[in-house]
Amino acid sequence: MDIRLVQGDITEQHVDVVVNAANSSLLGGGGVDGAIHRRGGPAILAQCRELRGSRLPDGLPAGQAVATTAGDLPAGWVVHTVGPVHSTREDRSAVLASAYRESLRVAEELGATTVAFPAVSAGVYGWPIDDAARIALETVRAHDAHSVQEVRFVLFNQAAYDAFAARL
Ligand code: AR6
């Protein structure tokens, strides 16, 4: 399994799975979540609402992942995951690692070959980018790949790209 880094917008990636850094409501937000719903169109939100009405009445807990259509994105599916809010009082690293691991598990279930991740929790949720990069790369490296051949980290700005590059 290859790990690649690109600087850019995850909504433009031609991949089987785009991972969304969502919140537990699954009903949208800012950051990468807002961009995915904007570019992917209303079909994604419609499936998120369906999930809330069936399997996930209380929303998606942090560290877990669930798939929907990718709507109008040039991708096969969106896998929504929820990272933890960063805390200085409590170590939530295991939850962040779980968000990557569970996203890859769902991607494998879908038979995905290529998976694009943003830097989960490193925006609104406040995770320091160097540590976010360490946890992301360690967790993805430890993944026992079946269908997945490429994991692509799509970093939105130079600082995030540099943090991942320094760890790769
Ligand atoms: N492509 C790739 N990366 C992006 C894009 C994009 N189009 N837009 C932003 N990023 P964030 P979180 C980067 O805040 O910290 C939302 O409101 C961004 O620069 O999107 O997990 C959700 O609904 C940062 O490095 O996600 C939740 O409420 C990274 O993506 C909450 O934010 C993650 O930043 C989740 O916070």
Annotation keywords:
alpha/beta, 168 residues, Leucine Aminopeptidase, subunit E, domain 1, 22% strand, binds ligand AR6, 5 helices
Write up what this structure looks like.
Helices cover 37% and strands 22% of the residues. By secondary structure, the protein is of the alpha/beta class. It has a single domain (2-167), classed as Leucine Aminopeptidase, subunit E, domain 1, CATH 3.40.220.10. The protein has a six-stranded mixed β-sheet with strand order 1-6-5-2-4-3. Strand 5 (114-117), helix 4 (129-141) and strand 6 (150-155) form a beta-alpha-beta unit. Helix 3 crosses helix 4 (129-141) and helix 4 packs across helix 5. The radius of gyration is 14 Å and the shape is globular.
User: At the third CATH level, what is the topology name?
Assistant: Leucine Aminopeptidase, subunit E, domain 1
Contiguous helical run count = 5
**Alpha-carbon Rg, integer:** 14 Å
- What kind of oligomer do you see? single chain
Shape: globular
SSE pattern: EEHHEEHEHEH
Distance between the termini: 14 Å
The pLDDT mean sits at 98
CATH arch. level architecture: 3-Layer(aba) Sandwich
Class from secondary-structure proportions: alpha/beta
